[in-house]
User: Which sequence fits this backbone?
């Protein structure tokens, strides 16, 4: 039986406050764009291109962060009434980011600008120099030992960059670039209008919801709730809410946006975010819903196969398939990491070798682990929580062995759920506690929604819900105290009278005009089994 500290309201609030060393920041606390290395140089070159009517081509990325960054730049240049050409590489035809293959699609350009990619594009940068193109890279990923030679590189992870926050996403840097351009060109554009987009990217790219990230997401969620942009209006038709949480977007809009690049082409998601009328937005959102349903089906099928493929005793899971859809490998890796509580890599065969994605778990640095096996890889990139890679078939077993060695130190650290704060008796759960916890919204990466353990509670009654009876509704009792709970996608069977331990978060259930607290149950175990 794992031991957890016994909690009350005061201790919970103290633990949550400890997550914010610099307190709760506001938009006025955002650092100046000039704190980014090369930002002023990049802005001056773009401003000169605009004044001279030069051809500017934007290269984005097919994940949500890249799509949002591309959309933000499109909308900003649209406000300036300046023609910006843009390309989001296709995951299947072009591969990732700025590449020689993408450059072959560009007849000519004076300036090429990247968002959320480019920091590893050494060969593409060389081609740009040969063609006389000024390349401006904006990216947020780890800077390689030998970065590309470009006109300007804006990446907060450069050693000599003075920007004070390392964990920001590509769309945030794009927003900062636009803010600096607005100032340089003396434009009457309110940059707060774009925070609804930035919030999407921060959440989707699993950035820590602390420091300026928290401030930008908070404001972005408020703007989204009342935004008159067509994409937001039609999304609210689908999800009518007065206010959105970070989790609403993490499990709602962002998977739909992501599904376009995973299933077909991310340009569809970009067009949806930039649509200028309601009817176009509705049509594009329907397409995204269709992609997402296809993605869910593939994800379920491949997750089942990947579970069979991986060694559950390995400190870093490695699942390999021959014909798995490339677009869902990252999601499947996340499912494996959550299920087995350890980092996971999922690879599928291609003509040249194996291509795949990895997701970490807990505080394990997956990038550092895989980096130790880098000599066996042809391509590799990412960050602590998520990576992408490619290797030749003949290197698979050597890579597997090196991965086992490199990941051995992680195994002991992640055997328990890192999001559980401690044990919370039922008598401590009330409206006052719930309202106090809400003050720490938005919850997500770096500030997870508080999860608790409830010991030895009795199931008074239970009922199966859902079209497939896949959800479990519970009525629970401990001493004189009672509460309801729900466990989505619960596969286990329980009976009235069973005594169980629960892992849960708190939620407010709205029904027939009444609001009641309920437990959102994440795990049910026999009493003393957690």
Assistant:
């Amino acid at each position: 039986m794992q031991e957890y500290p016994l909690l009350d309201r005061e201790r919970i609030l103290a633990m949550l406050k400890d997550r914010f060393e610099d307190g709760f920041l506001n938009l006025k606390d955002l650092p100046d764009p000039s704190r980014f290395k090369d930002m002023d140089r990049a802005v001056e070159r773009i401003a000169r291109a605009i004044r001279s009517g030069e051809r500017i081509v934007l290269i984005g990325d097919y994940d949500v962060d890249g799509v949002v960054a591309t959309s933000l730049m499109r909308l900003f240049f649209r406000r300036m009434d300046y023609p910006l050409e843009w390309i989001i590489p296709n995951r299947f035809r072009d591969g990732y980011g700025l590449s020689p293959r993408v450059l072959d699609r560009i007849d000519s350009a004076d300036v090429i600008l990247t968002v959320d990619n480019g920091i590893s594009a050494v060969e593409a940068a060389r081609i740009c120099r040969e063609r006389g193109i000024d390349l401006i890279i904006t990216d947020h990923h780890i800077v390689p030992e030998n970065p590309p030679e470009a006109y300007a590189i804006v990446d907060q992870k450069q050693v000599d960059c003075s920007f004070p926050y390392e964990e920001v996403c590509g769309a945030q840097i794009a927003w900062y670039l636009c803010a600096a351009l607005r100032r340089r060109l003396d434009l009457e554009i309110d940059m707060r209008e774009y925070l609804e987009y930035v919030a999407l990217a921060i959440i989707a790219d699993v950035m820590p919801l602390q420091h300026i990230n928290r401030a930008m997401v908070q404001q972005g969620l408020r703007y989204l709730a009342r935004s008159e942009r067509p994409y937001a209006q039609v999304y609210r038709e689908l999800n009518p809410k007065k206010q959105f949480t970070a989790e609403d977007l993490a499990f709602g809009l962002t998977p739909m946006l992501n599904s376009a690049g995973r299933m077909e082409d991310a340009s569809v998601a970009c067009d949806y975010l930039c649509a200028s009328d309601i009817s176009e937005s509705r049509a594009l959102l329907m397409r995204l819903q269709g992609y997402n349903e296809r993605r869910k089906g593939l994800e379920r099928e491949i997750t089942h196969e990947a579970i069979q493929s991986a060694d559950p005793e390995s400190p870093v899971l490695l699942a390999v398939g021959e014909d798995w859809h490339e677009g869902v490998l990252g999601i499947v890796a996340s499912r494996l990491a959550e299920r087995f509580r350890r980092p996971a890599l999922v690879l599928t065969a291609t003509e040249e070798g194996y291509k795949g994605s990895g997701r970490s778990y807990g505080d394990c640095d997956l990038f550092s682990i895989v980096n130790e096996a880098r000599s066996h890889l042809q391509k590799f990139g990412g960050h602590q929580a998520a990576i992408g890679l490619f290797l030749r078939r003949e290197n698979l077993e050597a890579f597997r062995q090196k991965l086992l060695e490199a990941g051995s130190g992680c195994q002991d650290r992640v055997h328990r759920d890192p999001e559980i704060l401690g044990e919370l008796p039922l008598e401590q759960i009330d409206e006052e506690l719930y309202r106090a916890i809400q003050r720490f919204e938005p919850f997500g990466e770096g500030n997870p929604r508080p999860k608790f353990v409830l010991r030895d509670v009795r199931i008074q009654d239970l009922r199966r819900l859902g079209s497939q009876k896949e959800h479990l509704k519970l009525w629970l009792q401990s001493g004189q105290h009672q509460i309801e709970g729900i466990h989505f996608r619960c596969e286990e069977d329980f009976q009235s009278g069973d005594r169980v331990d629960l892992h849960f978060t708190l939620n407010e259930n709205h029904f027939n005009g009444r609001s009641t607290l309920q437990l959102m149950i994440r795990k049910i175990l026999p009493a003393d089994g957690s």
Notes: The CA atoms of residues 24 and 187 lie 30 Å apart. The chain is about 40% helix and 20% strand.
